[in-house]
C-alpha cells in the first residue's frame, strides 16, 4: 500500500496573491476543506504546504497556502502533484478503495485462476471501471459492480471477479 495518496494537481495560478487552481484527483473536491496541509512534489522533494483557505470554482478547488502570498512563489509549480499521508486521508466506507491501492492488484477468476492485473481505474458517471491487463496481454474493462467484483483484498493485493457474459 502507498504511504502517500495523490489528492490533486496544480493546474494554474489564480490571481496574483499566490492562490492556485487545483484539479482534484479525489472523488469529492470538498475534502480539501478537511485537509490541513498537502505535500507538493517539487520535482526534487516533497514540500509541506499548510492550507490557509479553500474555495471552489466549477470542478476545481482554489487553494491558498500559508506563506505563499505572491504569484511568483507558486507559478513554477504548475502541473505538479499534491499528496497527503495516508493517515491524513478520510476513512473509506464499505466497498470503497483508494485508486492507489487498486493499481497493480492481481485479478483472479472465481476458480482462483489468474486473470490479469489492474492497470487503471476510470471514473464514469454510474460506476468506476477497472482497466485490466489480462495474462495474454489484452486489455479488458471490468465494471466495478457487485455482479462482477466478488471480493477485494487490499492486504493480499487480490481482487476476485466473476466474468459476466459479454465481457470477454
UniProtKB/TrEMBL annotation:
Keywords recorded for this protein, A-Z: Chaperone, Cytoplasm, Ribosome biogenesis, rRNA processing
Domain Ribosome maturation factor RimM PRC barrel: 100-167
InterPro entries assigned to the protein according to its UniProt record, in alphabetical order: PRC_barrel-like_sf (IPR011033), PRC_RimM (IPR056792), RimM (IPR011961), RimM_N (IPR002676), RimM_N_sf (IPR036976), Transl_B-barrel_sf (IPR009000)
All residue ranges annotated as the RimM N-terminal domain in the record: 7-87
Subcellular location, record wording: Cytoplasm
Cleaved signal peptide residues: none
Keyword Methyltransferase: no
Known partners and oligomeric status: Binds ribosomal protein uS19.
Family recorded in the similarity comment: Belongs to the RimM family.
Function summary: An accessory protein needed during the final step in the assembly of 30S ribosomal subunit, possibly for assembly of the head region. Essential for efficient processing of 16S rRNA. May be needed both before and after RbfA during the maturation of 16S rRNA. It has affinity for free ribosomal 30S subunits but not for 70S ribosomes.
Annotated domain remarks: The PRC barrel domain binds ribosomal protein uS19.
Name of this chain's protein: Ribosome maturation factor RimM
Gene: rimM
